[in-house]
Structures are given as C-alpha cells and as structure tokens.
Amino acid sequence: MTGTIDQAGEAVATATRAEVCVVACAEAFRDNGEMVASAFGTIPAIGVRLARATFSPDLLISDGEAQMVRGVWPVGEPASGEVEAWTPFRTIFDLVWHGKRHVMMIPSQVDTYGNTNISAIGDYAKPKVQLLGVRGAPGNTVSHPTSYWVPRHSPRVFVSEVDMVAGVGNDRAAEAGPAAARFHDLRRVVTDLAVLDFAPDGALRLASVHPGVTVEQVREATGFPLAAEGEVPRTRLPTAEELRLIREVLDPRGLRDKEVSG
C-alpha cells in the first residue's frame, strides 16, 4: 500500500500497486480523442474505462461482442450503457486500417526497439512453447497506435531479441520503409514496475517507476540496457476520485489485485 496525495493536495486513501498500474494504463489513452480503445488484460480494461470516465470522454469502448456502449461498467460484467454504434467483426478491419484504434496488447516477449512476440518461444521451426500465433499484431502495429501491458516485468519478457516478430518494432518498421513506418506508432509499455516509452532513436527508455520501485530494480528485471534521461520520476498516483471510481464503479470485486499484487 502506498500513501498518496491527490492533485489538489488533499490526503486520499492508500493506493495499491494494481491501482497505480490502472492509472498508468489510463494515461496511455489521454488525449486520444474519438478512438476505439481496445485493452487486453484486467488492469488495462479498468484503465480504459477510467480514462473515459475522467479525462478522455470521447473514447469508444466495445461490449466485447459487436456494439459500442456509452458510459462505464464494472470489469467482468456485461455492458450496461446505451448502445451508440453497431460494430460487427467485419468492421473492425476498417477501423484498424484507417488508424482509428489504439490497442494495448500483452506481449510474451519485448525487445529493445519494441518488437514483440506472442507466437512461439524458442526456434520457430520447433518451438519450446507454442503461443497464440501472430494474431492481429502485425496489422495493429503498422496501422494504428499500439501500447503494451506486462503484468510481470522480468528478463524473460524483456529480451535482447525476440524469438519471433509478431508486433513490429521501431527498427524493423524503419527498415521496411514507408509502407510499414508511415502509420507505425508505438506509444507506451506499462508494467507492474514501471512505465516505459521510446527515445528518439526508437529504443525503449524508462519514463517512470511505480512507488516503492527503484530504477535499479527495473534495470535488473530487463534483459537489455534500459536508457533513462536524468532523474526518473515516480508514476502518477491516483486521485481521490479515481480511487473511488476504481474501487466502487469499475472494479468493485477487486479483480485488479489478481493481476498485480502489492
């Protein structure tokens, strides 16, 4: 638990690591405007709803099937708001290819330049572990904004070179030329320890560390040298209103604590 002060300077209840992660995920969608927000994972799903309930009201959120729904509702529960759009599966590809979507995916591996792997671990011809396949990662990463959520920051996830490229990183997009790089837009990587963004050269860098976490801890948990500019700030803490929304409206069952503890 972390003692917090809200942005108005008023004392608020203590925030857990999971709640700090929720706010960090929400911040990835700040100022996105009218954009479909697709979040994978419990904490990103709460974060997207928190963003829409506070500083990004124009975000579009699906009920998980074929409708865009107004308002916010508890994670893990059926959508309860007014239906504002019909989005059958066939329309998702139009949204992807026109760049009107910001997705937050969960990678199995991430390398220095943001290449990600969700397909297989080990030799691709004979992998040690078969995962999901590339799924929508190639199209997502070259067509619209993409961020990532890593519930367990470790050298097994943050590797010097991914075993198979599913999501296109900054270096490979640049090498592929305008067809891949024109709309390639990697935003952030939020983990249970920190928030990472990308330096001008395209490499991952440390943007902030969560309360109670040190820069050294994050670097030790990363399988490649992680850049940082100057003194690394602390990840923003939840305000009193954000904590109320998280605890009473968006996740009253505390599902967030099953994804990140502490």
TrEMBL record:
InterPro entries in alphabetical order: CoA_trans_fam_I, NagB/RpiA_transferase-like
Pfam families: CoA_trans
Cited SMART domains: CoA_trans (SM00882)
Domain of life where this protein originates: Bacteria
Family: Belongs to the 3-oxoacid CoA-transferase subunit B family.
Protein name: CoA-transferase
Organism annotation: Amycolatopsis cynarae
